Structure formats: structure tokens, C-alpha cells
Amino acid sequence: MTNSAAPYMTMDAKSEERPDGAKYQLLDLPWEDVLVAHVLCYLPLRHLLSLQCVSKSFRSLVQVYLANCRTFDPAQTGPCIPKEAFCSMLRDNTVLHTLSVHRCSDWITDKELLPVVGQNQQLRRVDLRGCVQLTRHALVALALGCPRLQHLCLAHCEWVDGLALRSLADRCAHMRSLDLTACRQVRDEAVGYAAARWPGLRSLSVAVNANITDTAVEEVAKRCRELEHLDLTGCLRVRNEAIRTVAEYCPKLQSLKVNHCHNVSESSLGVLRRRNVEIDVEPPLQRALVLLQDVVGFAPFINLQI
Known about the structure:
By secondary structure, the chain is of the alpha/beta class. It contains 12 helices and 9 strands.
């Protein structure tokens, strides 16, 4: 075991001689091999940020931890994180596997995100949901610099377009889950193109997008046989024919969301229900019973008004 503390030690962190012999202080332990790997990893990020204020040595120790951190999620710091703190915390990190910045959506732009993406080519999971100030250049940067990307959330990022999605599909061959909720610039052609290159896709959301039709859904079903979760909420142009294709080609499907898909009915959903697929729309009989209970519940009030 090597002592990685030496380059970072300052006078205030050295142990002191006592009458009963030398006593080790916390910072005398090897930093990377012990403190980073077995101590700091159990502390919430907000506590680590507070720890930086104790001394220069603790500030250096926390920087070493942040430089070796595989996961970054600002949710651990509280309701929001300042732009300067974000840039400082990730300045030296080149080993990130998971990056979530949806808590930074109020201020994060390409200027803050692109350097982080550019120096972390091992990224596998990225959450950009709600980051409306980013541009398609963020997606292109992920495509060019992070070939091992497997999980990507782009919900409510209306800057995502078909061309950027195609670039991602061409270079990130191992995609397993993709959330395109409310990405309204994305159309059938781009979804079909991506599906053809991601046969291992297990989870997909194209919810809240009136541009998505049966064409895209059928292409996904035929190309992505490993699909387990599909969210079509609010896709008003999706019809029963597409759902039947999903039922035929996706034997591993576990959940399907079709709420507000007014052209999808029980005639296609029934096949999936019999396979115990979780569906967010109740069967007609159950819906009728709920409505009847509501009517019965209001009956005394109605009679009272009369």
C-alpha cells in the first residue's frame, strides 16, 4: 500500500509527539488507498463540501476524492448547486461512469457541460433531463467522446433533434435505455434509425410527442426484441396496429404506458395483459366500476341538492 498523502500534506496535518508516544491523526493515513476508498465514499457529498472548509489539507483530500469519483449527482448536495462549485468539483475528474445534472438545469449550458464530457470517455449513464439551456452540441459531444454510453435521459430537452440522435446511434452502439420524453423535434425516421442500431435496447420513452406514429413504434418493436419497458404516453397518433406489433415482436416486454393514446384500445392491450405486462391504463370493466363508484359516492350529494 502506497502513501498517497505525501504530495498533499501540510504542516497542520502532521501528527504531534505526545508523552505516551506518537499518535496518528486521520490525515496521516494513506489518502487514495484508505481515506478515499474506504472512508470518504460513505459520506454524503454535501458533508464532503463542508469538510473542505476545515483546513487546506482537508480541501486537498476532498479534491483527491472528487477526482477519483465514479458517480456525480448534485442531488446529494441539496436542492441546488452553484455553477462555480460544479465546475470546481469536476475540474480534475476523468473517471466518471455516471453523471446527473438535472438539478443544474436552471443554469447549465454547453460551456459547463462539454469540458466534463470531453474528459470523461468512460461515461455509461448520463441524465440531462430538463436541461433546456443545452444545445444539440451536448449530444454530439456525448456521441463523439463517450462510445460506452448505455443509459441516457433527455426528457424535456426540446433541443434534441433527429440529426443529433442519428449521430448518437452511429457511435454509441451499446445503448440500453433512452428517455426522449417531450423531445418534440424527434420524428419517426430518427427513432427508426436509432432502433436499427440498438438491438439491445431495453427501455425507451418517446412520450408526449405527437410526431410519433405507428411507423416508429413498429420499427422499434421489430428491431429491439430485448425491449422490456416502452412509454408511449400522449403519443396521439399511435394506434392498435402498432401495439399488436409490439406484442408480437417483444416477448420480454414488462411494462407499457399508453395513457392518453386515444387510438389504443383493449383489443390490442388485452394480448399483453394476458402475458402479465404492466399497463398504465385500467381494463374497461375496472374503469367502469370506478366511474360507478364515483357516481354512487356523489348520489347523496345530488339528492340533497335536488
